Amino acid sequence: MRWVFTGGSDGYIRRFDWFGSINGKVPLTVAQRHPFVDSVTRAGVLLSYWENEEPTVAGKPQVLHVPETTDDLKLSPVYSLAVQNQSLWLLSGLESGGINLQSVRHDEGKIITTLRKHNSAVSVLTLANDEKSVLSGSWDGMVYDWDLNTGQARREFPSSSGQISSVAFRPISAEWQEIRNTALINGVSGGRDQGLSNGVSTSNGDGDEDAPGSPVESTRSYDSLFGDDNDMGMGEEDEMSRAIANGLGSDSASLENGREDQNTNSIGDTIMADDVTRIHTNETPGTRNSCINGGLETNGFLQTASANGPLSSTDQNMFLASSMDGTLRIWDIREPNPVAVSTPPKGVPPWCMNSCWSTNGNFIYAGRRNGTVEEFGVHKGIGEATRTMKFPLGSGPVSALAALPNGRHLICASFDNLRLYDLSENASKHSTVPFYIIPGHHGGVISSLYVDTTGQYLISIAGNRGWEGITTEVLLGYEVVSVLS
């Protein structure tokens, strides 16, 4: 995650340097720091910004001719953003129903083309894994599947009523194998039962081996510095050289299989653990703008750019769509009708500003206006909630949700606070308060929550996305760390 793109109701898209913000020394003023906790001290590093222009429709008659100057551009609030993983281009939703495809790295902000199909504001944009197609949701209640190579809508998914509030592909992932906490050596974190040597971790438990210094093919050659063939002056091959050779082979094998081995250690000083995961706001940027919406949006969405590209795996045939009337629909793009539909039961307000999948794709979580979060089991059917998580009275509507990669915790954003909810049944039964309040946000509608694929950082964006609600128009960045019990 290198850059963070935001869009706001003022019609501007902004690009922030994420690492420059969390490691920078730009302080917040006294007035800016006043609403936040003491740990929020740094401001975001703004790299650039440009207009989210509303292009004129070719052939549409104009009553009054307006000179085409930069001062007379018609700007559109940014209600949605989707950014390509290398930040070569991005998609931004328009209030008129169009979708701008804009360049980022080359000729920043230039509109390449505009996709037109919706009749109202585009509230959701979700890129597919291959980034050759995108799902768009709008206030007109329609969801379209766009082919970005041709610029045409391939499929449409109608909604009976209600503005589309969220669209998300179903995740596909194995069970999370939790990484246990250990001391850090050279900035590398390892498992509790795994040793570290020279900053290199191994997954086979051999923590006394040195780091590999040459390819595996060259492990047989250990000549001296002066060209001798006596194995570094030690005569015939001894047990030490054999141990080194074996160590190099095992290390290389573990490195090649690192992505498949969930016990492989993460780089940096932030890891997830099977114990209580908490969010800290120390050394994180607080950014106040008249509009941080859209790509984040204070209308509000967040989009980030990472040099590693999209790491999460999703089912490109199944997606979840929620609407503001509280209805949840699971769609199969190969079917003309939704495969599952859930409507708010009696006593639940017909309202849903955000919904999300669990990490393994087996559960759905929907935020409600009465301060509750409903959980639906996909295999049991989503007609009835399997359980309901209730927050204290006065917490306000739940406007944003995000599941942590460990599959155990859910971040819920309500009007008053961010809460980290423990989804494990044991914690719910034995804990009087099954959630942890995340300091930072207070008193405003949260438009979007973003957790990076490594589970190290969390970003919250305040905004109402064009709907009702008071907002603080602030982006806050958090560091996710593990706290051992």
From TrEMBL:
WD repeat intervals: 115-156, 313-341
Residues of the Transcription factor spt8 beta-propeller domain: 1-219, 308-480
Family matches, as InterPro entries: Beta-prop_SPT8, WD40/YVTN_repeat-like_dom_sf, WD40_repeat_dom_sf, WD40_rpt
Biased composition (Acidic residues): 226-235
Biased composition (Polar residues): 195-205
Ribosomal protein in keyword set: no
Keywords from the named record: Repeat, WD repeat
UniProt xrefs under Gene3D superfamilies: YVTN repeat-like/Quinoprotein amine dehydrogenase
Coiled-coil intervals, chain numbering: none
Top-level taxonomic group: Eukaryota
The keyword Chaperone is assigned to this record: no
Annotated stretches, region: Disordered: 187-235, 248-269
Pfam families: Beta-prop_SPT8 (PF23798)
Protein name: WD40 repeat-like protein
Organism: Tuber magnatum (white Piedmont truffle)
Lineage, uppermost ranks: Eukaryota, Fungi, Dikarya, Ascomycota, Pezizomycotina
